[in-house]
Amino acid sequence: MKKRILLLACLLVGMSACTRNNDDDPMVVVNTPETYSFERDGNSTVSFSGQTTRIQMANEIINRMKDFSATETILLNMFSNENSSFSNEDLNSSSKNVKSKTAASKDFFESNAAGSAAVRADFEGWLTAQVNETFPAQNTVASAGVAGQIADGSSTRYVSAKGLEYNQAFNKSLIGALMVDQILNNYISTGVLDAGSNKENNNNGVVADSKEYTNMEHKWDEAYGYLYGTSADKANPNATIGSDDSFLNKYLGKVDADSDFSGMAQTIFDAFALGRAAIVAKDYTLRDAQTAILRENISQVVAVRAVYYLQQGKNALATETPDYGAAFHDLSEGYGFIYSLQFTRKPGTNSTYFSRPEVLSLLDQITTGNGFWEVSPATLETISTEIASRFNFTVAEAKD
Question: How far apart are CA 40 and CA 280, in angstroms?
Answer without folding.
Answer: 10
